[in-house]
Amino acid sequence: MGQPAERESGERAAGGAAHPELPPGQRLQKGWPVTHYGPVPKFRPERWEFRVFGATADGRKHCWNHEEFAALPYATVVADLHCVTKFSMVGAEWGGIPARTVVDIAPPAPDVTHVMVWAEYGFSSNLRLEDFTSARSLFATHKDGELLTAEHGFPLRLIVPHLYAWKGPKWVRGVEYMTADRRGFWEERGYHNIGDPWREQRYSYQEEPGEGPEL
Ligand SMILES: Nc1nc2c(c(=O)[nH]1)N[C@H]1C(S)=C(S)[C@@H](COP(=O)(O)O)O[C@H]1N2
Ligand SMILES: [Mo]
């Protein structure tokens, strides 16, 4: 399998000096490019809901409408964004609802090991439960004090600072609790199942036994 064809648009900096704070192989990006597959969804507040489903502790689906979800306690996290196509955007202050808050309100069953984070148009990404519930994982509504723009994921995107950015779906709509691992959209298409930028886990062919379900 060749390298996955991730689409990119937006400005690219010419060069960009090596940066000691960056994971290996990454370069600094001026500005904030827009990177995703497919069209930008239109936000329809009356139809929007956030769902936690799958293997929940109480066996039920938990739903929030937009107003309810946006009213959950707000927190900020300063974190970099590392795209697997090698650009990084550093020092953003993300604001929103910690993933842990969602997990506390709608806890998983004891045998849950992974989550699938679902977004508009069926985009998905799988995470180990401990990556999802890490203290800095955030469902972001804001960046640097301003509401996200449509192309950057408004009204909600996941930020998982310690993993490559494809592990953070834009236009996120829900979380599925899973008792076994399953690959998400990019993980099925050649990207690494774990995606730790500090270990340069870019592609699925780099996976060690046990790092991901069979392709
Ligand atoms: N729904 C959705 N979310 C997505 C993607 C996507 O294709 N669809 N691409 C990911 C990738 S690969 C990156 S690098 C970041 C880019 O975020 P940005 O466009 O805000 O820079 O979004 C991530 N979230
Ligand atoms: Mo990316």
List keywords for this structure.
6-stranded mixed sheet; globular; 215 residues; 5-stranded mixed sheet; mainly beta; 7% helix; single chain; 30% strand; binds molybdenum atom; binds the ligand Nc1nc2c(c(=O)[nH]1)N[C@H]1C(S)=C(S)[C@@H](COP(=O)(O)O)O[C@H]1N2; 3 helices; 13 strands
The quaternary state of the protein chains shown equals single chain
Number of helices: 3
Stretches where pLDDT falls below 50 for ≥5 residues?
6-17
Radius of gyration: 17 Å
State the order of secondary-structure elements, H for helix, E for strand.
Answer: EEEEEHEEHEEHEEEE
Helix content range: under 10%
What's the story with the biggest beta sheet?
6 strands, mixed
Total DSSP E strands = 13
Distance between the termini: 11 Å
What coarse outline follows from CA principal-axis ratios? globular
Q: Please report which band the strand proportion falls in: under 5%, 5-15%, 15-25%, 25-35%, 35-45% or over 45%.
A: 25-35%
Average of pLDDT = 92
Bound compounds:
the ligand Nc1nc2c(c(=O)[nH]1)N[C@H]1C(S)=C(S)[C@@H](COP(=O)(O)O)O[C@H]1N2, molybdenum atom
- Structure classification: mainly beta
Account of the protein in words:
With about 220 residues, this protein is mainly beta. The protein contains 3 helices and 13 strands, in the order E-E-E-E-E-H-E-E-H-E-E-H-E-E-E-E. The chain has helices spanning about 65-70, 100-105, 130; strands at about 10, 25-30, 35, 50-55, 60-65, 75-80, 85-100, 115-120, 125-130, 140-145, 145, 155-160, 170-180. The strands form 3 sheets. Strands 2, 6, 7, 10, 11 and 12 form a 6-stranded mixed β-sheet that branches. It has a 5-stranded mixed β-sheet with strand order 5-4-13-8-9. Strand 8 (about 115-120) and strand 9 form a beta hairpin. The termini are close together. Residues about 5-15 have low confidence and may be disordered. Molybdenum atom (MO) binds near residues 84 and 166.
